[in-house]
Every structure is written in structure tokens, then in C-alpha cells.
């Protein structure tokens, strides 16, 4: 049987609002019963110690807190619909989201995938309260009730395309849901599966039934397998797990709690009563599960039993377990039941037991079972090879096995065998990272920043990079995005500052871009080199190191020495042009390749002097071997010339530079870098005279660290030799646009022949022309410099690069700390892009980490009256009022404003919103939850309120309306048009 990994867990049970709290509750042996809250029902009206007809014999049960809270805006659900939703649907939506995140998956990334949803549910008392209120029955109450909607609601809001099924097999519903989810994965019907269970106690109905059936414990507590077991104590809650085939989970690097080895389901058939359990069926069920898992009974460390705490049920279950385990030769099988802590949670009982089992295997500890003062002697536990787990028990560190049972009141049974997860690959260590959080609103972002900051306090500093990598994958999809980079303490400090209202620069409010970022790449030329180029990056960044090693090995074949020795050495070899040029090529190529491998799309490439060879190579117009041959030959020949040349960067216009070189014949313009940025090249004496002349006039001059007068007539002696050495060079087409700094325009790649590169060494660099042509042609989002310094980014700003185009430095020069690629990642993430951060981080960061769950807003409350609280209603302006305004000849703008206010108030009323929360930019469907039913209801109200719109059809209206402003403008224009035809000024 194909093993299935449990990759994500979320739950909300009595006394435990989340998974970690649930585990603490189990380990501490807490029992969570309370008296029935007044919000549920008046217990005095239904309680009777004797349990007479129509009464319950207990005042207590196990309840979750804040069952009426729901973050409807997070899911784009209008308040009027949220008020009609069964709270079980609301709890499942939030729990599913958190479980998917816990699995290391961005929930939005599952849209359109074959993800299945299987929900166990036993009762929906909300539905009974709502659906039989016939006068108050509305469309939203219809879709807000019913078992079928519990699964469908999840699939709809997450856009899932796999099977979506609600399962009611009574108390075994949610473990049966796990079984069906596993079956869908094993059959290939789903690639990811969400299995869940839910239960909410809203009326005394089932409590009365249990009392009348003799199943209800007077103290409201289950005492599974205990001597004082006297019935069921009811409980409620929701639990969700995310399942994947084990191989898929391992390949994706997902965290794994445990592995389902087998799962089975059956029915008792005809036994001694439809509510009585069948020992034979339970034995058959467990033996089949063992057979499918290919293990023996004695390999099980424990069984998380159904264990309701009824004498009949417990004894039948213990005897059935004995038939399987009594022949064990080793340690007895430990026996436990979560119902002693949180009661019998009915539809969610199976998932509660399953989650306990997975957590026990994950933590390698079986929590104690709360059963009372002593075990029921009638169970004959020792004889049956069983031992009650009355205290914490350590489990095997690897390969531990447990089983979980869930038996339905009508005879439907489920059983699963679960194993501890395989050992995870050790995480790649890294103390710097880029942390991402996102939320639908700034307020929600602050709440979640506080939660993440709190978790950072206990994080191992060496795990920061892999932990941050998980946030990049899981928590990035909402429009309001917070991005912080740095060490653990830097991250935590940034989050705290943001949460307190500062550091707004860390956030953006842009939708996630579906396309990669468009980046124009600039490749540095000579004079930007220095000893130790990218040393820190090479030491810490595996991807860059791999790329530099690869290109260096190719260069070495032509240079006959390892360029890395010159790159990282301090022996002065970089002073020689023959070494400096190949070294610069290797560094720039490795930087550009690393950026490209992260999924960033080069919009264009421009190389300054030597950098043009690098640009052509990265674009595929030259192979790495050919490019290495070009730069080595070029550097060797140029370096063979007499060292009597110099170059200066000057703050002059082109015209001023031309006048200067005309007066100094041994000088020439080597590069046109911008409107007032030129490079002068020539003999040492001539350049010195030019420098003196410029300084006397108050001009600015920078001496460049070069050995020769590049891009000047002084290069002419090597042109023919270079052309000869490169004879036969055959360039290919460029894979992204290349803009030549020889021609000042785009080239396809075919032009880059031996003649081109021979001419290139003496021709002036037309950098400004190339940049201007590239910007006009491509409109980049960013420009990045692939080189050891940021020399070209400043020059490019002078060449018509728009202010909105942001600059990305891949290496800042000698002071570089090797984290620039993380800064690039932070910038792109903050701007709504999602590059492959494993590349920008420098390699795989190991398995994904479990992160703090999303913090939902709990301020909105909806309960069984179905009403939406609003104390600021605005009465729509009726047509009669508009006619009055027109009769008084009031300004048309006033009438328009009145119509707009009226439309806005209708939108608020139909959706259940407060008027002052609405804005024109809010999308009706995505932001306000106006689905097709609500849109039709709104149209009906518009027609009623404004008879002039009675002829407007759905086909005419809906295609034009996307947000609130669209609807307001449509109504204003149509009413104004009708008013003019009726003689109204409005």
C-alpha cells in the first residue's frame, strides 16, 4: 500500500485553540469540561438529575471558545453571508488554511490543482435552526447550511478541483474522511488531500438523546477504560490534516509528522443492535489494516482507541484488541483515548484521535490517558496483551508504529496504522535570510508580524535562512506584503518596529506578479577589478561558487592558470591586463548566471567594454568556451602593448570632450557614458595634459586604474592579430535582447563575429546610446549590475532610465559582505515578485520549517440570530428625493452625489457592511464577497429603489461591474440619462 505522509495539522478543541496548545493539554492530562455556556442554551430548562423525558442528565460538556468569531473578510465573504454560515463551515475554512500553511504550502498555490477535500461531520444543528425558520429563509441561509457545503466551501474558496466530499458515518466520520483521502491519493484521484472533522454543540438535542439511550455521563466526562466509566461526555471542535503521497512530500521538502501505512473501513453488519459495536467486525478491521501495512501486531507500540467511556463499548473494544494482541511476546500494547481530555467530539472524534496519534509519533511520546482512578477490571487488559497508558510513555526514536480506531454509532468503523516520519535531511545552516509575511490588510499584517516576531525569539540563529525560506514559500500571496532581511535579531527588530507603526518601508501593497521580474543586466568592464572580488559571496553562496568554479575551469583551459587565484589573491596578478580581463569575465558571468538561475528574466543585456563579451555569453550568442577564448586572447594581446596609456573619467558633455581631444591629438573619446560622463583615453602624457586643462577650468576628473589606453587608436596594433586568432568564430542567436555598445543599438547575435570583436577593442564605448535604446525598447522594472562593483548603475541613471526602474547591486565592491543577493531577493519579494530564493540564498535551505499559523481577525462575531450588527445605517436616497432636488433646480453635481450615496448605502445594506467601511476601489466579488446570488439580490434592490433602472438586465450590468466605483458610476450615468429624458436636471 502506498504510504501517505501527514504534512500539515491544525486543530481547535476545548481548551486548545491550536495544535501546540492541544499537545500541551494532552501532555498535562487536562480535562476541559465546563457548564453549558448561556450562548448555547439555557441548561436549567433541560437539565434533570434523573434524566426524565425531554431532559439531559448533565449540565456539563466540552466547548471551544469564541465559536462565533470569523474572519469573513479574509475569505471575501460578505457579513450578511457570514452571519448565515454554519459556524462549522467557518471553522473549517480557517482550520484548512492554517493546516495547508503548516504543510509548507502556500494555500493560494493549490488553486486549480487536484486537491481533494474530505470532511467528517455528524450533525449540523445550525442548519436545523436556520433552515426551519421558514419566514427568515434566504439564499445565503440555504448555502450556509447542509453537510455538503462543509467540504464544498473549502474547495470553492481555495479553488480546488479534486473530489470534495462530506462524510457522515456518525462517530467515525472524520477518521473515515482520512481513509477516503488516503484512498484518493493512492488511486491518483488527488495529489494533495485535506481531511477534516468538525462538531459544534448548539442545542441540547443529542445530549437528550444520549441521556434517554443511557449513554450520557452525569458529570459530562468520558472516562475511557476506567472503573468509573459511566457514559459519554460530549465535546466539540475542528481538526484538519493535509496528506500527500510520501514520495511527493519528500521530493517537495515538506515537513512530515507521521506516515499512514494503511487505512481501512468496514461495517458491523447485522449484530445485536444497530447502536451496539461488533467485536468480530473490529477484529476483522484491525487485522486487515495490519495485513495491508505488512506488519505484525506486536510491532505496534500503542493503539489510540475509540474509548468512549461506556462499559459495553469499552469492554467490546478491549476484547477485540485482545483477539489481535494477546499473543504478543514482548511489551503489551499501550492503550489510550483522547476522549478522556476533551470528551467525545462526535463528528471530529476520529480526527482528534488521529491528530493525537500523529503528534505522539512526531514528539516520540505517548501522552497519558485520563481515565479516572483505576482501570475497569472487566477489561482483562493484561490477559489481552494491553496496558492502559496512565502516564507519559517514551516511543522509539525511529520507526515507531501506532494505530487509531474510530467506531460509528450505526456500525461504520475506521482504523489506520501510522508510523513515525522518516528522518529529515539536516537543514542547511545560514544566519541571514529574507523573511516574508503577507495579509489582506495592513492591520492583519501587523497582527501576523507580532506572531512571527514572537516565534523568532526561540529560533536557532543558525536556522534563520531555512526558516525564512519557508516564509517565502508559504506566506507571500496576499497583497499586503512585509519583507525583512538580515539575522534573527535584525528580523525580529524589524518586525517589532513595523508592528508598532514604524518601518513602513518594509512593506508593499501590490498584488503578486504572475510573470518574473523584468531585469536589464549591465556587465562591468575593466577598471572595476580589485583583489578579493566576491570573496565573501564565494565563501557563503554555493550557487555562485558553483557557477564561478565552472566558468573558471573553462577559462583556465585558455589562460593556462586558474583565474580564481588572481580573483582571490593579493599578489598583484590582477594588475596585468592579460589576467584582469579573464578574471572579470569569470566573476561577472557567474553573478549573471546566478541571477538568471533564480528565474529572473533578463529583459536585455548591455556590456561595457569587456562586459559585452560576458553579456553575449550569458545570452547564448557565444558559448562559455568561445567567450573564454575571446577574453583570454583579447587580454593577452592588449596587455602585450606598451604600458604607456592612461584613461580618465570626466564630467563633460560630448561636445566639450570632442573639443578637448581635438586640441590634444594623442587623446580620444573612449566611452560616452552619459550626458556629462565621458571617458578620455590616450598616451600617459597626453591624458595628463588633458587632465590639467580640465581641472584648470574647474572640471571633475577621475583617474581610472588601467594599464593601457583602451578603446583608442593605441589599440590598433593588436586588431589584426585578434581578428586572426578569432577566425572561424560562429556566434549564435541571442536568447534575450543584446544592445551593442559599439553600434549603440540592438544586435541579434549574428553580428558578433571575429571582425566585430577585433573592431571592438579600439572603438569607443557607446554605453549611453545602448542604454537609451534598451530602455525605449523594453521598459525594465529593474536594472542590475553583474560585476564586482556598482559602477554602471549610476551611469545608467544619466541615460534616461526612468526613476521607477529600481537598481539592484549584486556586489557592492571591496566592502561587500556577500549578502547583496539577499537584498535583491528582499526587493523583488517586497515588490510582489516571487523569484527562486533557493538560488539567491545560495542553495537548498533544507526541508521547510513549520511556521506560526496565520492569525485570523476574531473581532467579527456571528451567531444563531443571523443578524449583522451595524449601528451606522444610511438610508438610500429615494428617486422621489431626486425629483424634489431637480424641481428646486439644485446643482446637478449635488444630485449625482445623492445618487452615489444611495447606491453605496444599498451595497452596504445588501452585503451587511457598515457604510463607512466601503470604498470605490473595493472589488464586489473578491473583496466584498458579492457572489452571483448576492449580485442578483443587489440588482433587485436597485430596481426596487430606483424604478428608472427596472429595465437593466443582468447581461447588461454584470460584465461592466468589477468594483464599487463601477457600479456607482453606472447607476449615476443611467439615472442621469433617464432624468434628462424626463425633463429632470439630474
Automatic annotation (TrEMBL):
GO biological process: fatty acid biosynthetic process
One family name in Pfam for this protein: ketoacyl-synt
Ketosynthase family 3 (KS3) domain mapped to chain residues: 1-420
Entry keyword set: Acyltransferase, Multifunctional enzyme, Phosphopantetheine, Phosphoprotein, Transferase
GO molecular function: 3-oxoacyl-[acyl-carrier-protein] synthase activity; fatty acid synthase activity
PROSITE patterns, alphabetized: CARRIER, KS3_1, KS3_2, PHOSPHOPANTETHEINE
Domain Carrier: residue ranges: 894-975
SUPFAM superfamilies: ACP-like, FabD/lysophospholipase-like, Probable ACP-binding domain of malonyl-CoA ACP transacylase, Thiolase-like
PANTHER family: FATTY ACID SYNTHASE, SI:DKEY-61P9.11
Name of the molecule in the record: Acyltransferase domain-containing protein
Species annotation: Mycobacterium spongiae
